[in-house]
Please model this.
Amino acid sequence: MTPFLLGIVSSLAASTIALGLGLLRGSRPLWWLIAWCSSFTGTGLRRVYRHQSSAEQDIARDLGRARWIKVLAGRGNVLTREAFSPVWSGELSPDSVQVLLPDSRTRADSWLDRRSYDVERFDAGYTPNLLRNQVRTNLEYLAHVTSTQSNVELREFNLPNTCRVIATDRAAFLTFYSSSTHGRNSPCLYVRAPGLLYSIALQQFDIAWIHSFPARPAPQA
Model:
């Protein structure tokens, strides 16, 4: 667990530099300036989307060029939407697709529950089991659509739910979750390889993967 927490600290430190460009978030004409600045810092930052949800069209574009795909998500809704549809249909066939979603089982030491408590504080519509049920639904969907694809591996993790990573061999979309807003409303960083932030994105995924386990079918009611 210690390496994972150290990774988070390093991630937050590096992201502070990137988010210092907050005034430029979401402004496409100024993305060139962000990229120019990152060339001097070595961060690899290319774009900053004001909201994570604004990046989905560009995610779809990058997936179409990918040799491999790694996804670490806190809920997994993006995996059921249009951006990933060509991956699950077989229209795209990367060498490997690794997907990590939170452990949706009921357990006493659940990090998913801790994230759920955070969400309940700012979203009155969230009941204690809503986030868990949403993750379970997405796991069931992915298990079904990938059942015949040997290049896809779906696993679960019980670790701090602090960020979302969608990475390919070329770049990564990196979102750090806030305790006061939904992930979809958080800024999303687009970082290219090679670069500090790209390395940190892969580090977050790799540490979670080491501590993960194969996805399990939901218990029958």
